[in-house]
């Protein structure tokens, strides 16, 4: 650090230069984030210093958070669900599974088996979690941090998790299941009703990762069963900073029952509040205000319009690609498209190098992945398709 500070102008110049090096979303078809809504940005700035880690000092922001939880709980068919605003899907997933693991370790069955293994010198079995093979990589972090074995269930032809595979992986050390409502790579929705039935039958938890799909599915014409309406669903991750058009970092984690949240409790002796359930200490009150502002400004009608436009653009893209004999790996459920394209990796890198387009890749099956976020326009799609055509023609 310099001994004396730079001038405001010098700082502004450096920042402008750095900002100039960032890609504009107008060339990005790989991200699940987008420009936040203007009203979210204004609210974020207004609450910039608010720290939800010590919410006794920021009662107004805390009340906004409570309202958000009840709005989202209502959207997900449980207005009295409990939880908090996280930094996003990763933290929500970590905390949801941490709660499962804590409650599993406290259960009398586990305590009994731990006691008998102590007596017999056998090691107590490691808890495991059954996730779809399409689960976001945050679950690999979950496994590492929480020392939980990850059991990956295979997918069916439509890239939904196979219910039989899930069933076959469950044993007495399974702490719970994960279902995805809007998978990162394919935008697919797992058979959550069936998984909810299994969770109830086996008396285990079921966490739904709706980080992306949570602000899409409730606003689609077709209705999907993925939320607390299903009695086996015990927690949900949903991210306002993705399709919710809020600012980063805005995630929400909701639990069906208070005892799940309670299992995350830590004492906080020197704060204005005596307990915390969150993973991080200091938390952005700005993101809370932003999420409150955009959700109330748009209302369901506003999100319906946003989702409907993204889907219109998605279908427009597919029609144009059909003319080029390029087809999706699965019929898109939401605004995520995985395309069957030859030499995907090469096509991806040429799109970036020659035309400055950012797209991504799906692993299994291998495909070119596009996310049609609210910053995408018809012109953007026309221009992208023309550039993709040039590359594909040159491969022949
Ligand atoms: C389904 C799903 N879950 C979790 C995450 C992780 O979210 P974040 O990057 O906000 O932590 C993502 C990110 O794209 C996702 O698509």
TrEMBL record:
UniProt keyword annotation of Lyase present: yes
Cofactor(s) required, per the database record: pyridoxal 5'-phosphate
Catalysis: reaction(s): L-tyrosine + H(+) = tyramine + CO2; L-aspartate + H(+) = beta-alanine + CO2
EC number of the protein: 4.1.1.11, 4.1.1.25
Highest taxon of source: Archaea
Keywords linked to the UniProt accession: Decarboxylase, Lyase, Pyridoxal phosphate
GO MF annotation list: aspartate 1-decarboxylase activity; pyridoxal phosphate binding; tyrosine decarboxylase activity
Stored Gene3D superfamilies: Aspartate Aminotransferase, domain 1 (3.90.1150.10), Type I PLP-dependent aspartate aminotransferase-like (Major domain) (3.40.640.10)
BP GO annotations: carboxylic acid metabolic process; coenzyme A biosynthetic process; methanofuran biosynthetic process
Pathway where it operates: Cofactor biosynthesis; methanofuran biosynthesis; Cofactor biosynthesis; coenzyme A biosynthesis
Modified sites of kind N6-(pyridoxal phosphate)lysine: 242
Any one Pfam family match given in the protein's UniProt record, by short name: Pyridoxal_deC
Purpose: Catalyzes the decarboxylation of L-tyrosine to produce tyramine for methanofuran biosynthesis. Can also catalyze the decarboxylation of L-aspartate to produce beta-alanine for coenzyme A (CoA) biosynthesis.
Similarity remark: Belongs to the group II decarboxylase family. Sphingosine-1-phosphate lyase subfamily.
This protein's name: Probable L-tyrosine/L-aspartate decarboxylase
Gene designation: mfnA
């Amino acid at each position: 650090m310099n001994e004396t500070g730079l001038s405001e102008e010098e700082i502004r110049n450096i920042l402008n230069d750095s900002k100039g090096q960032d890609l504009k979303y107008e060339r990005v078809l790989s991200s699940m984030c987008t420009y936040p809504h203007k009203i979210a940005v204004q609210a974020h700035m207004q609450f910039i210093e608010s720290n939800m880690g010590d919410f006794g000092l920021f009662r107004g922001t805390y009340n906004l958070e409570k309202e958000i939880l009840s709005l989202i709980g209502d959207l997900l068919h449980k207005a009295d669900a409990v939880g908090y605003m996280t930094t996003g899907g990763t933290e929500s997933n970590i905390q949801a599974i941490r709660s499962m693991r804590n409650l599993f370790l406290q259960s009398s069955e586990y305590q009994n088996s731990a006691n008998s293994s102590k007596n017999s010198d056998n090691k107590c079995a490691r808890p495991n979690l059954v996730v779809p093979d399409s689960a976001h990589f945050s679950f690999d972090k979950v496994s590492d941090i929480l020392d939980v074995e990850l059991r990956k269930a295979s997918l069916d032809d439509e890239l939904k998790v196979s219910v039989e595979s899930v069933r076959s992986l469950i044993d007495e050390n399974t702490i719970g299941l994960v279902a995805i409502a809007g998978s990162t790579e394919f935008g697919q929705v797992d058979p959550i009703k069936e998984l909810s039935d299994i969770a109830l039958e086996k008396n285990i938890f079921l966490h739904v990762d709706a980080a992306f799909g949570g602000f899409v599915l409730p606003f689609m014409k077709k209705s999907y069963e993925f939320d607390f309406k299903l009695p086996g669903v015990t927690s949900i991750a949903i991210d306002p900073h993705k399709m919710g058009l809020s600012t980063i970092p805005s995630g929400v984690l909701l639990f069906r029952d208070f005892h799940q949240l309670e299992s995350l409790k830590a004492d906080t002796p020197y704060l204005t509040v005596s307990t915390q359930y969150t993973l991080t200490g200091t938390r952005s009150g700005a993101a809370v205000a932003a999420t409150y502002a955009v959700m109330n400004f748009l209302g369901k009608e506003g999100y319906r319009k946003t989702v409907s436009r993204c889907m219109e653009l998605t279908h427009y893209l597919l029609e144009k690609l059909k003319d080029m004999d390029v087809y999706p790996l699965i019929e898109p459920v939401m605004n995520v498209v995985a395309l069957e394209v030859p030499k995907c990796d090469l096509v991806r890198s040429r799109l970036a190098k020659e035309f400055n387009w950012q797209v991504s890749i799906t692993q299994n099956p291998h495909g070119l992945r596009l996310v049609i976020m609210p910053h995408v326009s018809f012109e953007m799609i026309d221009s992208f398709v023309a550039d993709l055509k040039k590359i594909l023609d040159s491969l022949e």
